[in-house]
Amino acid sequence: MHHTTVSRALRNDPSVKPETREIVLGAARELDYHPNSFAVNLRRRRSNVIGVIVPELYHEFFSSIVAEITRAANDEGYSVLICQSNEDYQQEIRNVSTLMSNRVAGVIAAISQHTFNDEHFKNIEKAEVPLIFFDRYCENCNASKVVIDFYGGAYQLVKHLIKSGCKRIAHIGGPKHMPGVIQRLEGYKAALHDYNIPFEDELVVHGGFSPEDGVMATHRFLSLPKRPDAIFAIDDQVAIGTMIRIKTEGLKIPDDIAVAGFDNDKISEFTDPALTTVDIQRKKIGKKAIELLLRHLDNLSESNAPVTETIPTELIIRESSQRVTQPALAAD
Amino acid sequence: MHHTTVSRALRNDPSVKPETREIVLGAARELDYHPNSFAVNLRRRRSNVIGVIVPELYHEFFSSIVAEITRAANDEGYSVLICQSNEDYQQEIRNVSTLMSNRVAGVIAAISQHTFNDEHFKNIEKAEVPLIFFDRYCENCNASKVVIDFYGGAYQLVKHLIKSGCKRIAHIGGPKHMPGVIQRLEGYKAALHDYNIPFEDELVVHGGFSPEDGVMATHRFLSLPKRPDAIFAIDDQVAIGTMIRIKTEGLKIPDDIAVAGFDNDKISEFTDPALTTVDIQRKKIGKKAIELLLRHLDNLSESNAPVTETIPTELIIRESSQRVTQPALAAD
DNA sequence: ATGAAAGCGCTAACAA
DNA sequence: TTGTTAGCGCTTTCAT
After folding, report:
1. Does residue B331 register a pLDDT over 60?
2. Handedness of CA A12, A49, B41, B129 (dihedral sign)
3. CB contact (8 A) between residue A71 and residue B79
4. Inter-residue contact A260 to A97 (CB < 8 Å)
5. CB A313, CB A148: distance < 8 Å
6. Chain B environment of A81 (Cβ under 8 Å)
7. Among the listed ranges A112-116, B215-219, B327-331, which one has the minimum average pLDDT value?
8. Taking CB atoms and an 8 Å cutoff, what residues of chain A touch B249?
9. A6 Cβ contact list (under 8 Å, min separation 6)
10. Strand partners, A132
11. Which of A266, A272, B299, B302 has a 20 to 30 Å separation from A281 between CA atoms?
């Protein structure tokens, strides 16, 4: 039998006689034969590998999204090549280079905190490799992206705190220039404004994304002449630090100070008290990113106008914001 | 210029005149040229991609090890193709097939909970692709592995609890058949034995790896006629569930019941009280796995006798096991 | 120090 | 339905 026939049989080419195909498939199974993907890809000028670049896999945020991307990609017959930038611009450039060298079929990326230059991502587009961003994207790229409704989530959260009777709501922000951080701050400000609570500079502190940042920021808030009665942290990890610091002070959560986070980290359900937070549907993000990428991959000819998918967030109310003594609720 | 010369220049072949090389490298940079890896790999009969199979990326245990594997692999010029088995045997078989199809240079794997058949891993060995296991390995494979000293960690932890004055130490185990679970149980038993504390069946309950499992198991312990004065959970997530349940009961940690976990999950430092646990040096595991794999990759000719590297564990004592009223310490 | 030739294992176009 | 031919873009060997 000619190797062409074998090749056809393995790809389920309908022109192969069923009988012949059975023989081939049987033999292939027997020998645990796998077509040489190098040759296949060389010939077909494309691979079934998708490149993913994330800042890190340490936080549940990224690892769970990567988990979902991988799962969804596998379901569609793609494999995932993973790169971490470690929040480093130079490393991210190397990551892109690695993916281009590996001739990936497409790229899904969340850029590092310290990336302010788009050159490397532009190169991906120049090579006509489809590119999808999620969460953190570069402004000047002509790429589709999946973004999170941080603004809406923060707005709903702060509104909830206000309705629970909080009057001095502090906010622990993240790195100042990050869009998601800015959007949360904007949502916070908008809610305050809509409910006639003046915004106060001293009630906003910026830091990173770890519990230590929460401890430090909270320390500052507690030493204010007029301390806040609620603290909205940029994420659940930071909120955990906040709770630690409040407890050290001997204050009660939520009655002395209410606490809320963001992300719906799996731990948030099990803190003491359970943490009010905002769910960001990480699975949906991963799934959507793959969906957008596949759309680009499938119709390479079609108009590939970049789209922006916004994933809604959902307020999760738990004990850390539910006061025993609630004031009469204001009209909505 | 002949393409052969270009190829040589790009690979820093010393036979190329420095002057020529500069011209080539300059042009390559200019054009953002990347050699076609399909052709390179086809010709060289090997790739620079390492396949990794993990049960999931959801727990910090796996995601942080994958993070480290990826980092170490990148440092050595390799990329990482990631697969999740989702703790499913059939999926794991598909994962292996995917990696073989992609002609990865080597495989690093932690097998699923439900894998009791080695066939697919045997196929990797048959194809002469180096295979390294970490944490969870298949018994019958002739592969090197990186294992964790669960036994020693559990022993030290239980010894610490005993020295802290605990006399009825309960253990929440994981899935019964998993080696790491068994080893922790053995370490627990050995410590009890060495300090003349009788082992009691009713003080051991098996479950999964989530906080819910901790809540359930603890519930059982608390309804015992003679409740335990310490609970050693299979991991930190389970320990968090344990703490929740103990608090619900109105009992104090550690004075009424001491609690300890395993893994040194990043959250363990920030629970209330901070959780005593055992660190398992996840970074070292990832680094060692890559190191072993590269050793196989580099001397394909040499004797590849499989080795087993045991990564030591380290007791991390925090508040959840430090009683206010400590008894006089027994001699060591 | 460079060029020429062969071939890695496939797939696509065409022929039979 | 199957076979033949050519060539994907490199690297290696040998020749110059």
Report:
1. no
2. negative
3. no
4. no
5. yes
6. 49, 79-82
7. B327-331
8. none
9. A24
10. A108, A144
11. A272
Helix (H, G, I), strand (E, B) or coil at B237: helix
Q: Which nucleotides in chain C lie closer than 7 A to a protein CB?
A: 1-5, 7-13
**B196: closest CA of chain A, how far (Å):** 35
Structure tokens at A35: 């077509």
When mean pLDDT is compared across A155-164, B133-142, B246-255, B257-266, the lowest value belongs to: B133-142
Contact B244 A272 (CB under 8 A): yes
Q: How far apart are CA A167 and CA A192, in angstroms?
A: 9
- Confidence category of residue B330, pLDDT binned at 50, 70, 90: very low
Minimal C-alpha gap between A109 and chain B (Å) = 16
- Chain A segment 170-229 residues within 8 A of B by beta carbon are 211
**Closest C-alpha to B166, from B260, B305, B298, B286:** B260
Record the tokens describing residue A75, joined without a space. 């379901």
- Residue B281 backbone zone (phi > 0: left; psi -120 to 50: alpha; other: beta): left
Q: How far is CA B192 from CA A161, B166, B202, in A?
A: 50, 11, 15
Sequence-ordered alpha helix ranges (H) in B102-197: 119-126, 150-163, 179-194
Query: Could you say which nucleotides of strand D lie within 7 A of any protein CB atom?
Result: 1-5, 7-13
Burial, B66: exposed, middle or buried (Cβ in 10 Å; 0-12, 13-18, 19+)?
buried
Q: Does B261 touch chain A (CB under 8 A)?
A: no
Instruction: Give A196→chain B minimum CA distance, Å.
Output: 35
Measured in degrees and rounded to the nearest 5, phi and psi for residue A83 equal -130, 145
For residue A270, name the pLDDT band (cuts at 50, 70, 90): confident
For residue B247, list chain A residues with Cβ-Cβ distance below 8 A: 272
Whole-angstrom distance, CA of residue A159 vs CA of residue A151: 12
- How many residues can be counted in chain B? 332
**Contact between residue A315 and residue A153 where contact means Cβ atoms under 8 Å apart:** yes
* pLDDT tens by residue, A128-166: 899 999 999 988 888 999 999 999 999 999 999 999 999
User: For B133-144, how does the pLDDT look when each residue is reduced to its tens digit (9 = 90+)?
Assistant: 999 998 888 899
The pLDDT tens digits of the residues spanning B179-238 come to: 999 999 999 999 999 999 999 999 999 999 999 999 999 999 999 999 999 999 999 999
The residue of chain B with its CA nearest to that of A238 is B270
